[in-house]
Write a structure and sequence with these properties.
Layout (H helix, E strand, L loop, with lengths): L3 E2 L9 H12 L16 H17 L7 E6 L2 H13 L5 E6 L2 H10 L4 E7 L20 E5 L1 E2 L4 E2 L10 E4 L16 E5 L10 E6 L16 H6 L9 H17 L2 H21 L3 E3 L10 E6 L5 H10 L2 E2 L10 E4 L6 H18 L1
Parallel strand pairs: 1-13, 3-4, 3-5, 5-8, 8-9
Antiparallel strand pairs: 2-10, 6-7, 9-10, 11-12, 12-14
Helix pairs in contact: 1-6, 2-6, 3-4, 7-9, 8-9
Length: 357
């Protein structure tokens, strides 16, 4: 039986992506070769890479606007250091917004490269909200934020207006909602949330922000080298890139980001309404900052945990426990999760309420 997969990542992907990826592992493009063994320099794979990069820009509305897309390796965590390498001059200053574990990790890496200022943080409140009362220094080389926080279940709903280049880690909500993506100078996202399997990272770069750090860069850290090589400076993660392309094609066929955003809103509303209505549960994130991707919640009485765990497991739900650092529950509702799976979770919550009464 196919599980209702609420895992935070690696996570659920469209069924057709699994099927087409599986077929390509056996025989890619009727070549008699698996996609796991074809040359990344072959015409077939170069076509995959070119289409994936172009389609990412198309879906974000950035085609022809001075942006390029890269598929690199090392996960979003590699970008924590690749970004200051490329964007932070020796005498410059980087501004960061601290909204969770991954933002904090990015800050730690940036501090190794130079002056790094944290302009706002919700750490003292266990990251239960998005800070709003902060100022970005006008002379900052760039401003870095994390759009969605998987562990604590918060999401930036409104981005600051600034003339400083804006960098955003969108690993867990890229392609899930409509934004003016041209406000950002660099966007990066690990594939394993809304796009594909772990192993590749999508980076969207406005070309005009490069060549300004004055640093001598190691080749693997240099965005310009990767751009000149069309994401082929070293051997790319062939299967993750192909599966990401399939997911982007699926998203386009659904009607694009605007359509999937409506579905994500419906899923989030269904679950949050139940969390707020059901006296046995409480949400952990401030309501104004709740994530549509990752809903975090607790039982008001831990004595009900055994009964609730039995209910959701019997319903075929997987991946519901919260991150090990915070506990409780976390329902990740990425693009490919159907509304019907959220309803199954809501039914289990309501069944617990009936049992307790």
């Amino acid at each position: 039986m196919k599980k209702h997969n609420f895992s935070a990542g690696p996570c659920i992907l469209p069924q057709e992506v699994f099927e087409k990826s599986a077929a390509a592992i056996l025989d890619f493009n009727q070549s008699g070769l698996s996609i796991l063994e074809i040359s990344h320099r072959s015409k077939d794979f170069i076509a995959v890479m070119d289409e994936a990069r172009a389609l990412a820009l198309e879906l974000l509305g950035l085609t022809g606007k001075g942006y390029q897309a890269l598929f690199l390796q090392g996960g979003a965590s590699m970008e924590f250091l690749r970004i200051p390498y490329n964007l932070l001059p020796q005498d410059g200053q980087a501004a960061y917004l601290d909204t969770g574990t991954w933002a904090n990790n990015a800050i730690k890496e940036a501090k190794l490269f130079g002056d790094t200022v944290v302009v706002g943080s919700s750490k003292n409140d266990n990251y239960n909200h998005i800070p709003t009362d902060y100022t970005i220094p006008a002379n900052a080389s760039y401003f870095h934020c994390t759009s969605n926080n998987t562990i604590f279940g918060t999401q930036i709903k409104s981005f600051p207006q600034t003339n400083v280049p804006m960098v955003c880690d969108m690993s867990s909500d890229l392609f899930s909602r409509t934004l003016d993506f041209s406000k950002f100078d660099l966007i990066y996202a690990g594939a394993q949330k809304n796009m594909g399997p772990a192993g590749t990272t999508l980076i969207i770069i406005k070309e005009s922000i490069l060549s300004k750090s004055g640093r001598s860069l190691p080749s693997m850290m240099d965005y310009e080298k990767h751009l000149k090589a069309d994401s082929m400076y070293n051997t790319p993660a062939v299967l993750p890139v192909y599966s990401s392309l399939l997911t982007l094609q699926w998203l386009k066929n659904q009607g694009g980001i605007a359509v999937i955003e409506e579905q994500n809103e419906a899923k989030a509303q269904l679950l949050y309404n139940e969390i707020d209505r059901n006296p046995l549960f409480v949400g952990t994130a401030n309501k104004a900052d709740r994530s549509n991707m990752n809903a975090t919640f607790l039982l008001n009485d831990p004595a009900h945990q055994e009964a609730f765990d039995a209910l959701w497991k019997a319903a075929g739900i997987s991946g519901l426990p919260g991150h090990r650092s915070v506990g409780g529950y976390r329902a990740s509702m990425y693009n490919a999760l159907p509304l019907s799976s959220v309803q199954v979770l809501v039914d289990a919550m309501q069944e617990l309420e009936r049992q307790v009464q």
